[in-house]
Amino acid sequence: MTQEYDSADLSMIFAKVCERLIDAAPHLNELDAQLGDGDLGTTLRAVATALQGELCNMPLPISDFMEKISQIIAGVSGSSFSAIMMAGVNRVAAETNGQNTLLSTQISDLIRLAMESMMGAGGANLGDKTVLDGLNGIADAIDRETDHTKLASAADEALSRIMKDFKSKPCKIGRARLAGDRSIGLDDPGMTALKHMIEAINGSHDSGSDFTGGVDAH
Amino acid sequence: MTQEYDSADLSMIFAKVCERLIDAAPHLNELDAQLGDGDLGTTLRAVATALQGELCNMPLPISDFMEKISQIIAGVSGSSFSAIMMAGVNRVAAETNGQNTLLSTQISDLIRLAMESMMGAGGANLGDKTVLDGLNGIADAIDRETDHTKLASAADEALSRIMKDFKSKPCKIGRARLAGDRSIGLDDPGMTALKHMIEAINGSHDSGSDFTGGVDAH
Amino acid sequence: MKKIINDPKNYVDESLEGLVLAYPSEFECIGANKRVVVRPDSKASGKVGLATGGGFGHLPLFAGYVGEGLLDSCAVGDVFAGPSANDVTEAIEAADFGSGVLSIIGNYGGDRMVFNMVKDALESKGVRNQLVIVADDVASAPPLEHSKRRGVAGLTFAFKIAGAAAERGRTLDDVAAITERAMNNCRSIGVALSSCTIPQAGKPTFEIDDESIEMGMGIHGEQGVWRGGLKSADDLADEMLDRVLEDNPIASGERIALLCNSLGATPIDELFIFYRRLAQRLSSAGVDIALPMIGHYTTSMEMAGITVSVMTLDDELESLMREPAACPFWRNL
Amino acid sequence: MKKIINDPKNYVDESLEGLVLAYPSEFECIGANKRVVVRPDSKASGKVGLATGGGFGHLPLFAGYVGEGLLDSCAVGDVFAGPSANDVTEAIEAADFGSGVLSIIGNYGGDRMVFNMVKDALESKGVRNQLVIVADDVASAPPLEHSKRRGVAGLTFAFKIAGAAAERGRTLDDVAAITERAMNNCRSIGVALSSCTIPQAGKPTFEIDDESIEMGMGIHGEQGVWRGGLKSADDLADEMLDRVLEDNPIASGERIALLCNSLGATPIDELFIFYRRLAQRLSSAGVDIALPMIGHYTTSMEMAGITVSVMTLDDELESLMREPAACPFWRNL
Ligand SMILES: Nc1ncnc2c1ncn2[C@@H]1O[C@H](COP(=O)(O)OP(=O)(O)O)[C@@H](O)[C@H]1O
Ligand SMILES: Nc1ncnc2c1ncn2[C@@H]1O[C@H](COP(=O)(O)OP(=O)(O)O)[C@@H](O)[C@H]1O
Ligand SMILES: [Mg+2]
Ligand SMILES: [Mg+2]
Ligand SMILES: [Mg+2]
Ligand SMILES: [Mg+2]
Fold first, then answer.
1. What phi-psi label fits residue C100: left (phi over 0), alpha (psi between -120 and 50 degrees) or beta?
2. Looking at the whole model, is its pTM more than 0.90?
3. Who has greater pLDDT, D282 or A215?
4. Residue C66: its pLDDT value, please?
5. Which of C38, C318, D84, D98 is deepest in the core (most CB within 10 A)?
6. Does the residue B213 lie in any domain?
7. Are D282 and D258 in contact (CB under 8 A)?
8. B41 CB near a chain C CB, below 8 Å?
9. C-alpha closest to that of C12 among C71, C59, C70
């Protein structure tokens, strides 16, 4: 079973994602403050806010749609996560040239290609405990899922599992690397941001469950 | 009954005063911190320490003895209290030219002359709640006291009385002037320093009784 | 007490040693106590000498302004305590190049008395010298008692004006008169967010809670005009400018020097946020900030806060301010 | 949060506005977001252009070093957050005078990725540009992983060296190579006594008790090498110098530039007490501090602490450091 997503479908998905990222900003800032510099929530709120304003007139083909997203990120933020996202989105744009719809069966491959560019831009490897590990798990999970109505829930479940796995591992790249063993027991902020996005699409809500609300570790 | 004080007598008196001022430094700093800039104890400790080192070879006549004290102050400190003291001591030096001893009957007049120079230097009046009000009370008290063995105790008693009187009045000059009504209820640091000196000579000990140990008023 | 220091007793001497080690051709410590800062190998001759003195803890004030086109000497006291009479004497003598010496000090009881005593003593020894006392802090006394006001960041202007006038070969009377005129044109006010700590006291000079600030506080933590809740930068700038202008109104078309100074811990970012409002206000009033100065000019160790100093300019004052000066803490305008 | 600010959201923009109001002939903000600082009416032509970019909250770093003999442009991010790709693009384009542009940035993931992306994009549009990444903080990774180190106050040296080389008309490759050489010669380390507060976060980035300090902390509050009791200035100077020299030994007879920098709240007095020990140690090791720099060069808002940066000099580097530069935050050496 294949579904085709047109520009309106995608805009609706991004609308949910944006709304959620704005709500999640304080949580993501807190998380990032424990391991990095505390700006991930602010970064994503800025991107989401800018994107919200453009969602009603996104261009086609899909490549232009994606390029527009990349440009919006380029206009408002320059942190690691946004740079990585831009690299990924740019790759998706390059791979969807001329397409007016996106096929559900394409998604896992597009994620893998995006990851390739993200690794090129940021120098991270799988296992470094970044958003990449989350994306990798999602790509595998939705590859195995043939029912397109279950893509989001499959992704969500996979991500929960992966975050649980990585929780006990240390961050190996980015600012969080310096936290060393202190990063053990904490979720990676980037993976958590991804979780918020997937939950928004899936309509679920649990990534905030760990949220302690205090930044006393440093 | 008149007593004559020679250089050895004076050195012994100053030795007691110096010792006491060094001990009282923290108390005087605290007091001055509540109304001024918190340096009165440090100032007087510096003066006392320098003076201690010279007391075994003070010159005569009395005028030279006094000039030497003035020079010692001039060498180590420049706060209001030391400037005022220098003005007073210089005047005493000028008035005791050629004398090899100091007469107990001279003292109240010398204090009054010293006060004249101190007022000239600092511009304060009686009633401004400064060391001058204390000196004024002492001059009056020892003027009335004919038994020279009781001079110190008479001075001490008079000063206690005067400090009690002034406690409920505001400081009208110097840094403490800015404290305005907040200076009501507090002893003037300069008068308190004088009290420590007189107590040292008298062998009594109560000027510390009010010492609360905290600088929370500002 | 959280400071990067060694024994608090050595705070002043070690800081001065570091200053001289850092800038050996700009500063030298002389005198019995090594507490008189002078210009080494000063080529000054025949000009009016300029001396100052005051407590330590306000760098670059006072000692940091010794330099060509600024001061010739500075007697350094202890932290927040004036210099000794002997050191003041040495400072004035070191600044005597044959045309008399002008001492410029802040209006603090001890400094005033000591400098006055030394002035008289030196005069009777034939050293011609005069004294200008700076009292620019509008928060410390009402206009009718302006001579009771404290001297604060306006001292920086006084040093610069006098330094340039002396370099131009003006007489002692002239230099004194120009400096007085500059200070008649100058008003300052400060606001403090946190206390400083005198090293030998070991604890903050005053307590102030996390939500409160004190308007009008002096550079030693002297009491201000009100203590209350933190306000926005714009509100603070407005109030401080109003208080300064109320005391010395400035007409549209006038030119001013404007010093926006960190008391120590306040970062440069905040100075610019604050300055932004001052500049907007003054520009809409038609006042020309001909000489803006933003930075650390007169500090109170680790106190957080800002002071504002405004000096109205005439052609001579402006040109004196613009003369170059050679000093690590002075930025040519 | 006790800061002299207005709405935390406007922190960066208002601070930049104040900067431009204070120094209108030195700084101008251009670009879609008004977040690209350039030299207004720059007379530069034909020379290699110099761009930078980074998070805000470190003034004078980064934007403050735009000026003649220093940088041509700076893309400004939010507090402690890098500039956007578009602003970086505009900054590099604004620094293009026909001979290529060198971007010099600190080694932070986001900045590195964004500048690299923009570099590639501009190159494919025919804008010749290179990137030097400064990684001078010895506390942030061991020698074998030196490319992972953070960029801190050594950036100030990099800007000055590159700025002077560009003014001398050197080629893009030359300017890049000289800057790389300077940074190979440069090591830094910091110690923090207190946290800073990101305005939009509203509370300190980290907690540290009244008795503790953190050795090796980064300029955004990144974790250091140890946290422990406050030590004397001399002990801190010794440890920090040892850590820097261990990484880059300096022989007797060598000449160095030495930057002793306040992270923000640490007062100048303390910098000199600290510098005194550095100078004594280096002088007894026969090292010549040819270029001492003491002050606020790379800050972290209201963080208290000191950083030390040492750069060994050869004749060319020293003469480039000594070239005059016109910038309110640079003192000519
Ligand atoms: N080099 C990298 N490659 C891939 N992902 C990265 C990389 N560096 C950081 N990340 C991801 O970005 C998140 C942090 O993003 P952000 O706060 O924007 O970084 P910073 O503030 O350090 O620039 C991390 O939790 C991680 O998931
Ligand atoms: N003008 C003055 N005339 C007489 N006594 C004064 C004067 N000013 C201050 N004093 C006395 O000196 C004391 C403060 O001395 P000190 O701490 O040395 O002053 P400061 O630190 O303000 O220079 C006051 O308590 C008062 O007794
Ligand atoms: Mg971050
Ligand atoms: Mg005092
Ligand atoms: Mg004093
Ligand atoms: Mg960041």
1. left
2. yes
3. D282
4. 98
5. D84
6. no
7. yes
8. no
9. C59
Q: Angle at the Cα of C186 (from C115 to C312), degrees rounded to 5? A: 140
Closest Cα in chain A, distance from residue D60 (Å):
20
pLDDT in tens, C39-52: 998 888 899 999 99
Q: Which pLDDT value is given to residue B207?
A: 56
Q: B175–C108: do the CB atoms touch at under 8 Å?
A: yes
Instruction: Flag whether A52 is in a domain.
Output: yes
User: Which one of D35, D47, D58, D150 is the catalytic residue?
Assistant: D58
Count each helix (H run) and each strand (E run) in chain D, helices first: 8, 12
Q: For residue B103, list its beta bridge partners.
A: B4
Among the bound ligands, the one closest to the CA of B171 = 2
Per CB-CB distance under 8 Å, the chain D contacts of A43 are: 81
Instruction: Kindly indicate whether the domain formed by D9-184 is annotated with CATH number 3.30.980.10.
Output: no
Look at A207 and A72; give whichever has higher pLDDT: A72
pLDDT digits (tens, 9 = 90+) for A40-68: 999 999 999 999 999 999 999 999 999 99
How many domains does chain A fold into? 1
Which CATH number does the domain D186-322 belong to among 3.40.50.12780, 3.30.390.10, 3.30.1180.20, 3.40.190.10?
A: 3.30.1180.20
| Residue A3: both structure tokens together | 């579904």
Q: Which domain holds residue A27?
A: 2-208
Cβ count within 10 A of residue A153: 17
Distance of residue D331 Cα from the nearest chain A Cα, in angstroms: 31
Express each pLDDT in C15-32 by its tens digit. Answer: 999 999 999 999 999 999
Q: What is the pLDDT of residue B215?
A: 30
Around Cβ B105, how many Cβ atoms within 10 Å? Answer: 15
Strand, helix or coil for residue C38: strand
> Is A137 domain-assigned?
yes
D325 burial (CB, 10 Å; 0-12 / 13-18 / 19+) is buried
Ligand 1 and A53: CB distance under 6 A: no
> In what order do the strands lie in the sheet containing D288-295?
D226-229, D212-215, D186-192, D305-312, D255-262, D288-295
Angle between helices D233-247 and D268-284 (to 10 degrees): 50
pLDDT digits (tens, 9 = 90+) for D2-40: 999 999 999 999 999 999 999 999 999 999 999 999 999
| D101-106 sheet: strands from edge to edge | D28-30, D36-38, D73-79, D49-56, D101-106, D129-134
Average pLDDT value for chain C: 97
CA of A80 to the centre of ligand 3 (A): 7
The CATH number of whichever domain residue B116 belongs to comes to 1.25.40.340
B16 in C contact zone (CB under 8 Å): no
Res A216 pLDDT > 50: no
Q: Would you state the pLDDT for residue D186?
A: 98
pLDDT number for residue B177: 81
Both structure tokens of D250: 């300096």
Ligand nearest to the CA of B43: 2
pLDDT tens across C154-205, in order?
Answer: 999 999 999 999 999 999 999 999 999 999 999 999 999 999 999 988 989 8
Confidence (pLDDT) at A37: 82
Amino acid at B207: S
Which pair of tokens denotes residue A85?
């996202």
Domain boundaries along the sequence of chain D: 9-184, 186-322
Q: How far apart are CA B144 and CA B153, in angstroms?
A: 12
Nearest CA-CA partner of D17 in C283, C276, C238: C276
Nearest-CA neighbor of A115 among A107, D112, A13? A107
- For residues D257 and D187, the answer to whether their CB atoms sit within 8 Å is no
Q: Which residue of C has its CA nearest to D8?
A: C232
CB of C110 closer than 8 Å to CB of B78: yes
Give the contacts of D145 (CB within 8 A, at least 6 positions apart): none
Q: Are strands D49-56 and D101-106 parallel, antiparallel or unpaired?
A: parallel
Q: Whose CA is nearest to atom 5 of ligand 1?
A: A130
Domain presence at residue B217: no
Mean pLDDT of D221-249: 97
